[in-house]
Each structure stands twice: as structure tokens, then as C-alpha cells.
Amino acid sequence: MAIWTSRRSLLTGAGGVGVAATLGGCANARIIGFDKARKSLDIANSSEPLSLDPHKATGSWENNIIGNMFIGLTTENEEAEPVPGMAERWEVSEDLLTWTFYLRRATWSDGESCDAHDFEFGFKRIMNPDTLAQYASILYPIKNAQAINTGEMDVEELGVTAIDDLTLEIRLEHPAPYLPQLLKHYTAYPIPKHVHERVGEDWIKAENIQVNGPFILRRWWSNYIIHLERNPNFYDANNVVIEHLYFYPQNDVQAAARKVLSGEAGWATRFPSNQVEVLRRDLPGFVRVSTYLTVNYFSFNMTKPPFDDVRVRQAISMAYDRDFVANQIYKTGETPAYKFVPPGVYNYPSSALYSWAGRPVAERKQEAERLLRAAGYGPNNPLRFAFSHRNTSDNPRVAVVAQNDWNSIAPWVTVELRGVENQVHYANLRAKNFDAGDGGWIGDFNDAKNFLYLFESRTGSQNYPGYNNPRYDGLVHQSDFERDDQARAQLMLQAEQLLLDEAPICTSVFINSTNLVHPDLTGYVDNLEDIHRARWFGIRNA
Amino acid sequence: MLALTVRRLLVAIPTLIAIVAAAFLLMKAAPGGPFTTERQLQPEIEQRLKAKFGLDLPIEQQLARYLFGSEEGGGLVRGDFGPSMTYKDKTVIDIIAEGAPTSAILGFGAMLFALLVGGGLGIIAALRQNKIQDYAVMALAIAGVCLPPLVVGPVFQLLFGVQWGILPSQGLHRDEFGLIYLILPIITLALPLIAIVSRLMRASMIEALRSNAIRTARAKGLPETQVILRHALPIALLPIVSYVGPALAGVMAGSFVIETVYQLPGIGKQFVYAAGQRDYTLVMGVVLIYSFLIISLNLAADIMYRVLDPRARTA
Lengths: 542, 315
What we know:
The complex is a heterodimer of chains A (542) and B (315).
Chain A: H1 3-24, E1 34-35, E2 40-45, H2 60-66, E3 74-76, E4 82-84, E5 87-92, E6 98-103, H3 116-127, H4 145-149, E7 160-164, E8 167-171, H5 179-183, H6 193-199, E9 215-221, E10 225-230, E11 244-249, H7 253-261, E12 267-268, H8 276-282, E13 287-300, H9 310-319, H10 322-329, E14 335-336, H11 361-374, E15 383-390, H12 395-407, E16 413-420, H13 422-430, E17 436-442, H14 449-452, H15 470-481, H16 485-502, E18 505-517, E19 521-522, E20 538-539
Parallel strand pairs in A: 2-11, 2-12, 15-16, 15-17
Antiparallel strand pairs in A: 1-2, 3-4, 5-6, 6-8, 7-8, 9-10, 10-11, 12-18, 13-17, 13-18, 14-18, 19-20
Chain B: H1 2-29, H2 43-53, H3 59-68, H4 92-127, H5 132-146, H6 149-163, H7 183-209, H8 212-219, H9 224-252, H10 256-261, H11 267-276, H12 280-308, H13 310-314
Helix pairs in contact in B: 1-12, 4-5, 4-7, 4-9, 4-12, 5-7, 6-7, 7-9, 8-9, 9-12, 11-12
């Protein structure tokens, strides 16, 4: 960029503020977070988006915004279940490998038609390695996607073809019955081809962007506010009630709750769980707690002692008192995790369980000591290891409980805590520079595969424990090719049970989603994925 | 004067380069990187991301690339601060341009306020040395230094915003800018400055009043107001001027605490988040703006010195 453009944008910023400063003086009215007359909603979102480009976004707080701007082939209803979006209906071939989607007639916000070509363009863009999409791997079930994304194949080979304006064909690598789940994910959103061809990667800027969803971006003021406005050209615009959405990046969870308490926000996407009682009292009807597609777990570094021994992993795993953590550290009714895949996952019976799950903690600790002695540890050969954890939110307090549980197995077990910031923690986990370390996983789509794939050996460094079991790999791989839902679930269950028995990880707690929502906001329904599109929102007692 | 300015500006260039190099190396020494997150990238994509930002190069080449750009252009010498490494849709200039006006108005306003109030209080204390007014002003100054904005901010919000409801307590009005939203933040930011300015003013005013020049002025029979404002004040202002230059740079480059407590869009907040996320280019951008402000305001202070003090002109 040449220097004069930089100077110009600096000057525009300064000039804009000057003009606004004189005008803004009269706008001293208090902000009403859920303004029924103006039909606007102020939202305390958990963080600043790193991108609003659906192909570059990675976080749930970004999804909260992007999902209001774009509609994929399928989309979410109030319950976050996949329902027809831009595709009115679809057909699946006999071998389950070719899906044909029939699109509705719809337009972008500027009136240009939004059709199958925009989708083809979108899928090819995200798979093109030059786009640097960090989340492209989620769409690897599409034919040739992985090869293209890793630069081994030309992008034109992608198994997505616009047969005509309103017909899109997607060919797959293997049967993926969860495809409708996947296609409502933001990675599968179309982008306006005509805008991208004109301005390139700047298409996402507020002055260029066109959307096919219910709301359009009006302003993005970094680390301060994002303003979306109703898109009158959305195909279902007549049923969209809310006119304005304002998203604030509220990194501080206490401040998020305060914003709702003071009436300046009508929805906060989280709140401090230890204040749930106070909030229930002060904000009657606001507190929403729901099971969530999230599991917290600890990884054992299996590439070196002591955790290369299955007995040590089992011992440490069983001595940890999940019930205490779920009830005393978290205060919003979290579930202790005696399995890995969160309960309630679609088409999955969730019946895998640690073999020792029903036994009391004291008994488990005795068993743990026996296992550790069998592994060669004892007074003369004490077990020492470090537990690395993130020093954010409730994690340090959980770590102290875990440390205490493990130290109390026997006097010769010593656990040292190492709390570090997130970035450093994950860098350590990936580099296998840890003994045991905490972590969490939020499902991208509602399918057990999305959890179990983490410990496939081909997952690479995100397989933090370094678990490598051909039988496990085989079961997960096989599940991709199983056409019968029940048989597929059984294969994944076997894999999960194997994971629990061999204990490369120690599961901790299934985290709940926590929101503060104005009770007069209708169309907000608690759901497993914690996805709530403003398109469905309405106003009670207007 | 012109020669001095030119000379100082020339010296500023190597200084800036040294600052850039030092900040760059320090930042790289921190563990982790902009792409280390909870979610693992495909190795090929991570490789390409690193190549895009030159993170795969040896560190001295990274620095050279940052300063002089690559074949595709860019580089600091051409005025390009580069794309942000974490905010994928924005460049460093975009982000700074969004935050800088608020930070600059806040800092400038706070300093102006501090000079008027602190200066006035300092003069009163000097003229009533060791009397009740003096003690009151100095007690206030000590309180101003001791109470951090982290404490004062929320108290002000509670009193002015919630209890009495006379001023907005936090944020702008959504995305509408207005000076009224900056009143409380400016006062909060100004308090410690008022304290320092008033102490400096008191000390240098006392000294100035004892000088021969003032005795002469009084001997000539000038009225006391004229003695103080026309003759003592310019001398007494000198230490303040040398303090204000760098201090103004400090407050104008953004205050993380003020911007967080009052939820304002400034660059102080951006800087802290960027450091946490290892957004190397954004951190460098803010460091550069800050260094540039320090250097230019120091120069401005020196020039002011010469305007105020005839002795400095020949030095």
C-alpha cells in the first residue's frame, strides 16, 4: 500500500470523528439493550471477531455474527437443527456419494441473483490453499477437497458443480450422512462472486459486502462494536422482526453480565457461572443454561514416561473427582464426564462409559494406587509429573482440585501445576512439551465423528496425547463408510469405549452453555449447539 | 531553529529503526505465535500462512522484510504497516485509524485539562506556600498519584453515571461519537497528570519567585498579577514543558485501563490484545506510532523551551 492511501485512511478516520463529535453531543439518550420500539438488540458477544469472512472465521463468537448475514444450502432453525436454507430440497444418489441440491430463487442484498454458481465459487475459494482458510478441513468429506487444500490437486477438480443456475451437485469422498449438518456450518456459506471478482479480498469490508441472509453489515469498529441491519432483500425478510443488531466484544465475562444488569444489552452470550444465583434473583427470567456440545478433558503425553504406561493413565484418570468439579467449581449444573462424546449428540446412543464409573472416589483412589504400584511406582520410585493448564476462567481452580486428587492417591505421588496463557499452552501441547495438560473441545457439527476424529493418528499434532492405535483408527474410518445409522453409531461407540479403556485422555466435565436473554425476546430456544439466529427472534409485550 | 529541527529529525530516523528492531526481537522472543490456537491448522495451511507473513524466514530476514518489504511491495519504508496477522479482514492502518482518534482526543483532552487545573493549583500553592491552601493542593496531588484509574474509573462511573445519572457511564452511544462520552474518561485519565503538574508547577514557581528577575520586576513597581503571569510564569513553565512532551505522547498512545473500564474504541486496548495474540504487525504499528509521538513531542518541547527561555536560544 502506498503511503498516500495510508495517510488518506488516517485522515478519513480523524475527519469522521470530528464530524461525529459535533453531532454526537445530542445523542445522550441511554442505550436500551432490547429496544422494542426501535426493534434493536444489543448483544454482549464473547470476543472480537478475527474475521467476518465465513471462509476465514474460526470461532463461535464469529459464527454468532456471520450466521446472521449468510445462509448456506441448509440453515438452522430455532433449535439449531438443519433445515432447508438456500436449497429447497435435495436428493441423494444410491451409493450415497452424490448429493443434488435444488436451490430457491433468491438474491444478494444488492439484487443480483444468488445461485448455484456463488456456491460453487464459495466451495472452491475455501478449498483453494491460497485463501489460507484455517477451517477448510471440516469440508474434507467433499470429493478431492483434501488434495486440493493441501496443494496436490487443481481447485477445478473439486467435487462441487453448478449444473445450472439452480442446481448444485456435491460429490463426496465417502458417505457422510451428516452432510446437512455440515452444510449449515459457516465454511459452507456462499460468498457474492460478483463482488469478489470486482474488489477481491476487500469484499468483506462494510462498504463492499453483499449478503444473502437476514442481516447486512453496516459498520465494524474494531474491538468496539459491530452493527448489522435488516436486509430487505432476504428471501424471508417479511418474517424478520428485529431491525438492528449491535455486537460488542465483551472479553470480560463479569462486564457482560453487568451490561445486561444495567439494561444496556438484551442478550449476553455468557455469564460468570459462580454468580448464577445472584443473576437468577436480580434478572428473573434471563438466565438460560443448556447442555452444550462441549467436553473438557485432560491429555496425557503418551510419547514419554510416565504416561506411556496405560496403568498410569488409567490410575490418574480414575482418581480425579469429576463430580466435585462439576458441582463445586462450576455452578450451572454441569455434568461430570465419564465418557468423551457429550450426551445428546444426534443419532448416537452415548452409552460408552469408564469401567469404573459407578464406584466411589475413595475406592477408585485405592485402585489407582494399586495400578501405579503395578506400574513400578512406590515410595522408592515416586511418581512426579506436571499438569499444564490454561490460566483463564475456571481452569486454574479445576487444576487445583485435580492436583489435590492426584496427590492424595499416595504420599509418593507429586503433581506440579503449570498455568500459562492460552497461546503458550496450546503451543506446548502441540509440541508434546507437557506431561498432562487440560483442554476443551466444542463440536463444529452435531455428530460423534466430530469428537472421535481428534484421536485418530492422522489428526497430527492436535491429537495431543499422541494416541496411535490402528484399531481405533480403523473403527473411526469404517464409520465413514457405514450407511446404516445404527451400525455406524455402534462402530463409533466401540471406538469411544476403546478410548476410555486405554485412557490417552482423562475426561473432566461436559460444559453447559450459559446465556442471559431478555425474557421478552421470543424465538430464542435453548439448544445443544448454542446457535441462536436473530432471524427467528420476535418481541413479546411490544 | 530550522537547523535544530532538521538535525533532530535526522537523528530520529536511526532511533526509530533501533526501536523497531528492539521491539521486533523482543516480541519474537515470546513463546507461541499468531497461529497457535486451540484448533490445529492443517500443516500445509499453517506453512502457507507463515510464508505469507514471512514467519518461515530467519529472524533477521523477517526484520528486513518488515522494514523494506518483499518483491510484492510493502515494507515500512514505503509507509506500509502490513496486514494484521490476527484480524484477517483488516490492515494495521485500518485498525489504528479506527482507534487512534479516540485515543488522541482522550489523551490531548486529559493533558489540556491537567495543565489548566494542575497549573492553576500549582500557582495557588506556590503563592500561599506553607499555608492551608498549599497543604490542601498537595494533599490532593498525593491522592491523585496514589489512586490508579482502575479504582477511580469505576467509582466515577458509579457516582456520575449510575447514582446521579448526569454523565454517560461507559462506551459511546453505540457507534455514534460524542465528546460528552469522553468527559469522565478524560477526567479519570487527567487526575494523576494534575497531581504531577501541580507539584511541578508549585516547586518551579516558588523558585522563580525567588529569582533576581522577579525581584527586579517587583522593584520596578509592577502590579503583582503582571509580575506573576508576565514574568514568573514563563520561567516556571520550563520544567512543565519538558514533562508534558513525553507525557502527552504516553497518554495519546492510548490507555488500556481507561479504554477497558469505559469501553471505548482506542488503540491502547488494541495494543494489549495484539500482544496477547502475538499479532506482530499490529504491535509494531502501535509501537511505531508511540515512538513517533515521543520523538516529535520531545522535539516540540525543545522548541517551546527556546520560545520561553531566551537563554536556551544561544545554547
